[in-house]
Each structure stands twice: as C-alpha cells, then as structure tokens.
Amino acid sequence: MKIIIRGMLYVLLISLLVACSGSDGQDPAVAGAGAEDAYSEGAIVPATGYSDDAEITVYALSSGTFAGLGNGYVVDAEETLGVRLNNGTISGARVFVSDGAGYQVEAVSDNEGTYVCEYRFDRELLIYPLLVQVIYD
Q: Which end of the chain is more exposed for a tag (fewer CB within 10 A), N or C?
C-alpha cells in the first residue's frame, strides 16, 4: 500500500513540475500563432524602456473645464479625469487609469488630444495613487 501511495506521489510531483515549466508565450504553437496584439484582452505587452517614455498631464474636470491634477488636489468620490500626452496624440493608443492594484478604467479619446474617463476614488484613503498606462503598437 505504501508503495502505491509513494508511486502516486511521484507521478503527481512530476506532473506538477511539467505543468509549471511553462514558456514565455513566444512559441507560436502556444501563443496562438501570433494572433495576440496589444489590443487583445489579457495580452502580454512587452515592457518598454525609459527611452520610450511619454510625458503626460492628468486633469480633473472642475466647473466645466479641466484643471491640472497634482499633489494637494482634493478629489470627489467620483471625478472626470483627463489625460493628455504632452507630445501629442499617438495613433491607436489606449490609455488606462488605475490605482495600481485592482481598479482600472479606460480613458477614451475625445479627438482633441485628451483621453477622458470617469474615475472613482476610495474615500477611505488620504492619498490616492494613480497609475496611467499608455499602450500603443
């Protein structure tokens, strides 16, 4: 009986090691023959370096106009945020605003160079981190 249990344990351990060995998703047989791009849900997007950075400005809608959002700005529970790429618009770009943990919304272009979204802030926090991601091909 001990031999059977020990044999099953070895088979389970080997199966676990094989399942966890994985790949980096670059194998066409695994990655769906390259059908995935930056716009696919759950797509793996390679990180860029500092040479590919883009300066942005984040705004909050106040009295019908966008005002710059910075340190010390007092926010409501829900704000209309605008993100502007300071080097102009990037064709086909998608902009996401996130708290860096689990809450994320997509900002949509208003065709005037600003990406706009409705963003909810957690009223229990004193400081709100904002992670802005600009994804483009």
A: N
